[in-house]
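Problem 12. The chain below contains 471 residues. Write out its predicted structure in C-alpha cell notation.
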Amino acid sequence: MTKGKRTSEVSALLRDALPCIHTASLPGPMAASILARRQQALPAGIASVYPCVIKRGEGAMLEDVDGNLFLDWVGGVGVLNIGYSHPEVVEAAREQAGRFFHSMMNITTHEPYVELAEELNDIVPVRDQRRKTMFANSGAEAIENAVKLVRAATGRPNIIVFEGAFHGRTLLAATMTGKRAYSEGLGPFPDGVCRVEFPHLYRKPQGFTDAQAIDYALERLEDALVQQSPPQQTAAIVLEPIQGEGGFVPAPFDWVRSVRELCDRYGILLVADEIQTGFARSGRMFVSDYWAEGGFAPDVIVTAKSLAAGLPLSAVTASARLFDAVRPGLIGGTYGGNAVACAAALKVLEIIRRDRLCERALHIAQVAREAFTTWKQRWPQLGDVRGIGSMMGLEFVEDPTSKKPAAGLVEAIVEEAAHKGLLVESAGVYGNVIRFLCPLVVNDFQLQAGLTILEDAIRENLNSPTTTQER
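Solution.
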C-alpha cells in the first residue's frame, strides 16, 4: 500500500468515525502540556474552555493530540459548513498556491477574485439585480466596509443596530455589538451608532402575543428615528437574520418585512449580516433568500465564515449603484480577496450546490429539532428551541415562569458534553443558550451520537445534586 493511499484511508476513517475519549481524563497529557504553554504565551483575552488540542480534522470530526476523537458541533463557530479539510478544497487551494499565493487586487488583478465576485453577484439575493462584490479578510472587516459603503452612498452618518447583536471585535464592530463584554473598557467609541430593541419573541413583554411584540419592536424603531437618528441622518439599518452571540434569535419575517417598508419610506438602506447564517446553514444559501421570496430583500449582504472553509475571506455584496458611489481607493486592502482563499471559496460554492447541502441542512434540522422538542417537553428548564434550518439555539432557564437565565447549567452541560466527545458552545447575552452549528457534512450516525451525548449531558446535570441555583 502506498503512503498516499494509506493517508487517504486513515482520513476517511476519521471522517466517518464516532466520538471516542480514551485518555483517563481531559485534557490528555499531550494536550495539557500544550495548553500550559498556551497559557504562558497567549493573552487570556483569547478565551477558551475546551480541554483539547486539535491535531487534524475531517468532516465533522477532529482528533486531538492525544488521539481522542471529538464530534464538533461548533465548526470553528460556523466556519465549517462543508467540514474540516474537504479534499477538493485542499486540492483547489494547493493548485492556486502552486501558481501564486498573493497579488494585491488594488495593484494586480487576479482572476479568482473576479470569478468569485461574479459567482456571488449571481447568487447573493440583494434587491438590485445589478450587483458588485468586494472582499476582505474577516467578518468584522466586511461589516466596517459595509458601513463605509452605506455612508458614502447615502451621504448620511448614522447606522441603527439592535440589542443582542454581534458584528465583530474591531472598534466600530464592537460598538455595533450589543453585548458590552466585547467592548468594556475600550472607549471612547465611534459616533453614529444607534441601538434599539430587537424582537426576541421568547422574551417578549409579559402578556404580549408575538404579533404585539413585533409591533412593539417596530414602535421602538420608529421612535429611534425621532429621538436618536432622524431619517435624513440614517444611512442604514444593520441586522442579523439570526442573532448569533445574542442567543440564536431569529428575526421574525413579519418584522423584517416592516423594517424593509420603513427603510423604503425614508430612503434608508437595509444591511443583512449573514456572516454566520450564510452558505446553506439555513436551508437556503442565505436566510435573505427567504426574505427575497417574501419581497423584502436587503440592499447589502455581508458574508464570511463558511465562505472559504476556514481560509480568511469575507465579502460585501450590494447594488452596483451603491458601490459606484464610492470613490476609488476608499475600499480594499492588502490581503482582501487573497487568491488562495478565493480559489477555496469557488470550490466551496461548487460543493454546496453539487452535494445539495441546503437540503442536507433541512434534514439535519428536522432530526435535531425533533429531539430538541422532545427534551423541551421533558425538561421545563429547556425554555425555548428556536432557529432557522440547522442554526438552532436551546435556551435554558431556571424555571419557565421567571425565565431566569440558567448560565451555570449551560456551562456544566458544555463541559460534560466535551468530556464525552461532543463540542458545543454557549451563546446569548446571559450565556444560557447552547448553539447548534454542526457541519452539514455530518453523517446520520454521528448526528445521532451527538444527540445522545448532549441528551445525557443535560440529564446528568439536571439530575445532579448541585442545582442550577447553587452554581
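Discussion. Residues 1-10, 465-471 have pLDDT under 50 and may be disordered. Students who got a different answer should revisit the alignment rule from Section 12.3.
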